[in-house]
Design goal:
Blueprint lengths: L1 E5 L4 H11 L4 E6 L10 E5 L5 H8 L4 E4 L8 H14 L4 E5 L10 H16 L3 E6 L1 E2 L7 H7 L1 E4 L7 E4 L1 H11 L8 E5 L3 E3 L1 H12 L4 E4 L2 H10 L4 H17 L6 H7 L6 H7 L6
Parallel strand pairs: 1-2, 1-4, 2-3, 4-5, 5-6, 6-10, 7-9, 8-12
Antiparallel strand pairs: 9-11
Length: 283
């Protein structure tokens, strides 16, 4: 089976790729930039999802597609629609779309864009599976410097707001289980972790596992905005991020792990176990 993986160079894509490689299928990754690959049964192709010609050439010899859209991209609907057009043309056997938990939240532009794409997928009449993961445990690594050197866990939203977080490795395992599998056609899977945790909850777990006192601290929106501007983050993405954190402060992000547990046939990884497994990264 020849599997096309879009978005393979991002954090999500790298985890999904590592899982798909283990299936021993032929994997074709796709991005705008060339990437050197020295792995058996792995090929990289360059191109742009804005280009219909690139997509046309890309999909001619592909069996199934796992699509990870660019993160918080203002043109996600257009890019995914372009891809979907040629998936239909070449009658791709299975299309897996990497969406997000609760895409129906209209106040979050990147969620709502995925809701629109999901609607297009369902109407296309192709064999699809839609994966809806909650926020990743791996996001904690973005705060590694504060945790390691300042004994603080910095968050740009209320320290009491509870989010359901999930190990991206568990999501990746599900990806390798469903890809090309008829049992999972025409399904939507909410993939949430086993806990609802606030910033204060995570700080307590970090303290317990790392053996030192970690304090949760709230970062102001102005502080975050200045930081993102210095990092040359696109202004549209900055606005989307700020809306997301405002929403989290008010509503959190609830989720239930029953579907993930059923697919994995085991309990999804807890945040405490995740930190224990990655303890060396905080030394």
């Amino acid at each position: 089976m020849r599997i096309l993986l879009t978005g393979a160079t991002g954090i999500t894509g790298k985890h999904i790729l590592n899982s798909l490689i283990k299936t021993k299928n032929e994997i074709i990754t796709f991005s705008r930039n060339s990437v050197k690959q020295n792995i058996k049964n792995l090929e990289h192709r360059t191109g742009d999802l804005y280009s219909l010609n690139d997509i046309d050439l890309l999909l001619k010899d592909i069996d199934v597609v796992y699509h990870i859209p660019p993160n918080m991209h203002k043109d996600e609907v257009k890019l995914s629609s372009n891809l979907l057009r040629y998936i239909c043309k070449y009658k791709i056997k299975h299309f897996v779309y990497h969406s997000v938990l609760h895409p129906n939240i209209k106040n979050l532009p990147h969620h709502w864009n995925k809701m629109i794409v999901e609607d297009l997928i369902i109407k296309s009449k192709i064999n699809y599976t839609i994966i809806q993961p909650s926020s990743y445990m791996q996001n904690i690594f973005n705060d590694k410097n504060n945790i390691t050197n300042k004994n603080t866990h910095l968050l740009p939203f209320s320290l009491n707001s509870k989010l359901c977080i999930v190990d991206l490795n568990d999501i990746s395992e599900v990806a390798s289980l469903v890809i090309g599998n008829k049992k999972h056609f025409f399904s939507k899977y909410e993939l949430a972790g086993p806990e609802m945790l606030s910033g204060n909850d995570k700080a307590k777990i970090l303290s317990k596992v790392l053996g030192k006192k970690i304090i949760a601290r709230r970062e102001s929106i102005n502080e975050l905005e200045e930081k993102l501007l210095i990092m040359n983050v696109n202004i549209d993405e900055i606005k989307t991020r700020l809306k997301m954190f405002e929403y989290y402060s008010t509503y959190g992000l609830p989720g239930n792990s029953n579907i993930l547990k059923s697919l994995l046939q085991r309990k999804p990884k807890s945040f405490e176990q995740f930190i224990f497994d990655n303890k060396n990264k905080f030394q």
